[in-house]
From TrEMBL:
Record localization: Cell membrane
Protein name according to UniProt: MFS transporter
UniProt-listed PROSITE patterns: MFS (PS50850), SUGAR_TRANSPORT_1 (PS00216)
Domain Major facilitator superfamily (MFS) profile: residue ranges: 14-387
CDD domains referenced in this protein's UniProt entry, alphabetically: MFS_MdtG_SLC18_like
A UniProt-annotated Pfam family: MFS_1
Length: 404
């Protein structure tokens, strides 16, 4: 069997227990994202308050990262994912049946919190189940199928809403969460090394934070910056399109082009990382995102915006899975879930801060000033990734001591 045959066999073996549930969960998330604001407004929220309710999804993810690491370390990956799916059911029912805005906002927050546990558990599982030589491809594929699910989700929601109204979107997420849990139950044994409750591989989160503080305050900040760049890209393309006078149809087509490139490039990016090292994707991708932001003020029409959006899609697409892969590389064998929870906290904080920072810069200065600041951050991120990601020695499992 060739190396590529072995990689293909491994990825296929992950299809049912990992990739199918990840796509279903992403589909559910994608289904509700476009309608949370509408639901909040229907319950009496202003547009500003509705935006805060939508931000509750991201806040829930941030709040769930550290507890999620503790939970996965305690009960194992599969049990943690099943608990996340079980928690998402009442949260989504609250979104469906909430008579007040506060209850609806609480349901949105808990949905984000459950998503954090789910994402962390599946990342931990792939990290431990896949050999280092094919780790980046496995994790890039995991990120890629999740993005595909989020892309399909809004279209599934449209069909459900045609029959059920706005509530149909939440029913789609609810059904997707139940189906994702069902695939995990049917996958009787995820892997021989699946943790059992009460295993001795958990460590105190604060102790782990102190131990890895040098890494977290260097490369961890770079990871947070990647989150800002990615989230800013999603917000700035439609904002800039409106700023230069494009209609909603043109903006949607441009955004769709960027999303298509984003989804198409996850596997090539993982292959490059496995073959040449993580730096060969981390640096070019963040450089592309930074340069694309800096080019945005020079666009005045749909063609120019489409070109810049394509560059952003290219940069974001090839970097699919880079954050999870770096986290897996540095994670110690003991306390791995807690470390990965902390690692995801940095990325999720950047994802949450990106749109807020972009909006604040636009409000205080101008759209052009906002994209220049984010573009400069992209250049710094590329430099810091090049500075802090270790040079590859060989395609072997790195020693935990080296990872620090």
């Amino acid at each position: 069997m060739t190396r590529e045959d072995a990689v293909g066999a491994t990825l296929r073996s992950l299809g049912w227990p990992v990739y199918v549930p990840a796509m279903l969960w992403g589909l559910g998330q994608g289904a509700i994202l476009p309608v949370v604001v509408t639901s909040a407004v229907d319950l009496g929220a202003s547009l500003a308050v509705a935006g805060l309710v939508l931000a509750g999804l991201g806040v829930g993810q941030i709040a769930g990262d550290l507890p999620g690491g503790w939970l996965v370390g305690r009960v194992g990956e599969r049990r943690a994912m099943l608990l996340a799916a079980a928690g998402a059911v009442p949260a989504l029912l609250a979104c469906l049946l909430a008579p007040t805005l506060w209850l609806f906002a609480a349901g949105v927050f808990v949905t984000g919190l459950c998503g954090a546990v789910w994402n962390l558990a599946r990342q931990t599982y792939v990290t431990e189940a896949v050999p280092y030589a094919m780790r980046a491809r496995a994790l890039s594929t995991l990120a890629g199928v999740h993005r595909i699910g989020r892309f399909v989700g809004p279209f599934a929601a449209v069909g459900a809403m045609a029959a059920l109204g706005t509530e149909g979107a939440y029913w789609v997420h609810l059904a997707a969460a139940v189906l994702a849990a069902g695939t995990l139950v049917l996958a009787a044994d995820l892997r021989p090394i699946d943790r059992l409750a009460g295993s001795d591989d958990h460590v105190a989160t604060l102790a782990m934070l102190r131990r890895h503080a040098p890494l977290l305050r260097t490369l961890g900040l770079s990871v947070a910056s990647v989150g800002v760049l990615r989230a800013s890209r999603q917000a700035i393309i439609p904002l800039w399109g409106i700023h230069i006078g494009l209609d909603a149809t043109a903006v949607s087509l441009v955004f769709g082009l960027s999303a298509a490139l984003d989804m198409a490039l996850f596997y090539p990016g993982g292959k490059i990382m496995d073959r040449y090292g993580r730096r060969w994707v981390a640096v070019p991708s963040t450089l592309l995102l930074g340069v694309a932001h800096l080019l945005l003020p020079f666009t005045t029409g749909a063609v120019g915006l489409a070109f810049v959006a394509a560059l952003m899609g290219l940069g974001n697409g090839i970097s699919s899975g880079i954050i999870m892969t770096l986290g897996a590389d540095f994670a110690p064998a003991t306390g791995r879930p807690q470390f990965l929870g902390t690692w995801r906290l940095f990325a999720d904080f950047g994802n949450g801060a990106g749109p807020l920072a972009t909006s604040a810069l636009i409000a205080v200065f101008s759209p052009a000033a906002a994209v220049v600041v984010v573009g400069a951050l992209g250049l710094w991120t590329a430099w810091s990734m090049n500075r802090w990601i270790p040079r590859p020695r060989a395609v072997t499992e790195p020693r935990p001591a080296d990872a620090g």
